[in-house]
Specification:
Low-confidence stretches of chain A: 4-27
Strand order of the largest sheet of chain B: 2-1-3-4-5
Strand content of chain A: 15-25%
Mean pLDDT of chain B: 91
Structural class of chain B: alpha+beta
Order of helices and strands of chain A: HHEHEHEE
CATH class of the largest domain in chain A: Alpha Beta
Helix content of chain A: 40-55%
CATH superfamily of the largest domain in chain A: OmpA-like domain
Distance between the termini of chain A: 48 Å
Oligomer: heterodimer
Low-confidence stretches of chain B: 1-25
Strand content of chain B: 35-45%
Shape of chain A: globular
Number of strands of chain B: 29
Largest interface: A-B, 24 and 34 residues
Largest sheet of chain A: 4 strands, mixed
Largest sheet of chain B: 5 strands, mixed
CATH topology of the largest domain in chain A: 60s Ribosomal Protein L30, Chain: A
Chain lengths: 146, 432
Amino acid sequence: MRRAILLFTAIAIASVAEAQLPFLSKRGPAQPVVQGIDALRADFAAQSGGTTVYFGNDSSILGVPARTMLTAQAAWLRRHPEVVVRVEGYGDTGDTRDHALAVGAKRAEEARAYLVLLGVPAAQVSTSSWGKERPGLGRAITVLVR
Amino acid sequence: MMNRLILSALLLGAATAAQAQQSATPAATVIAVPPLTSPDEGTKGNQMLAVGFQISQLIETDLKQTSELMPLPSRRDDYYSYPEVTAPSLYKWRTAHAKALLMGFVRSRSDGRLTVGCYVYDVEKGRELARKGFVIGPNDWRRAAHKCSGLAYTAITGAPGIFDSRIAYVAESGIGDARSRRVAMMDSDGYGHRYLTAGDTMVLTPRISPNGSQLAYVSFAEGKPSVRLADLDTNQQRPLVAGDAITFAPRYSTDGRRIVFSMMQGANSDIYVIGATGGIPQRLTTSPGVDTDPSFSPDGSKIVFESDRSGSQQLYVMNADGTGQRRISFGGGWYASPEWSPDGGMIAFTRRGQDGRRIGVVKPDGTGERVLTSGPSDEGASWAPSSRELLFQRVAATGRTALYRITLDGSEPRPITIPQDGSDPDWSGVMD
């Protein structure tokens, strides 16, 4: 019974996610449309499966889900060489201030290095860290700057 | 009858408690602080006497906050003449059971400023312990009082006073992404509170330079953390290092000539040192882990820092040129954010464990570790100039962040009064 509820919830969440982005999944990379930054951001998130990768506590090692998402992000970035992104890393909540800054920076750098490894020009990706100074810890977000 | 009995029992109880309190601080030296006198005459003389009374009242307030000195109330009718400043009649203060005496004068100058002189006497031995004179602006009587307080405190305890020092911190308001943070600064008694940044940019870890002329802090103005230096007189700002590297965790050397800090290179955080007026950063650590939070020993020969090179954050000490790195923390748990005490004898740290973050102290050789606070969300310890007290930040269960001070003798932390939430405290040295 519990399992059934869980499954149902999962389906519900999945369908909500789909409902939010109905047209984007149809938009292929081949369409040379002039896009605003918001549309680009939405397209990037949809094509990559998301903008955020997650890390284990006090770790900056990229897991399989993270690598999968970064692979998709890299593919999109190679198709949009004019777009500049910044990977923003976050630390962990129980950490001290400066160590959290460094861990956030490390996470951002690991994500960036993986994007560059997959052929994204290094100049296209910068990094930053929010340490533990903003809500939403344990992650790195790829933010489209322009 | 019954009521009376209870009352007397209560009184007795109160008396015992008072006695117990007194015996808990047997070393407290009773010091008399009669109002400062003036050699000036007429209206001017009365003005100077008024300033002198204000000064002695503030000295009384300053010294009351210490555990070592116990000032007698500063009373206006304890007037003495100008010649008595250098030839005091100690008999009066002996009968008042004072062990020490602080006297002084205020004299107006032709340029509008004031000359203040302070003299500290040993009442029992009948000799002068210290004297100091200085010239201040007409509205700077508070600084004069703090300087006299420091003179008395140092003469009697041998430790630097904390009175003429400043506290910088990050003032916080709002919630979530909208939380605004400003660098704020005030005198150590809370007076003269002011904001140094606007609040539209996130800021962290302000550090006051030893002579109080400059401030190093981390700003997110360029979209990423980087250390900036602000001149406190002109408010001119510049980045600590050129380029767009992530830099953080700045701290001045005691002589103010060098700044140690962390810089990211790729995924690696190492410790660097640079001249406070500029130059090329010199790299001091090369480990692939996170090396950060460096702090100079007061003689400038060594640096304590934290590193997770062993797999967890621990404290290390190295020579100021980066050689001789060795771990000093072995107590279990994680150790972070060390700061070397101004007298060189201790290192304050934040210890992370299952029970949260707590503030503690340890000797530079790694022995004598003591955890001082109960946590669970304490961090950012900063030494008072006296090396007998620490400032730190504590996040309450409600999420509010406040500043506290705690003495090394194991008493309870006391909150610092600030207008809003605060974090990242930094207690300056004594201003010259």
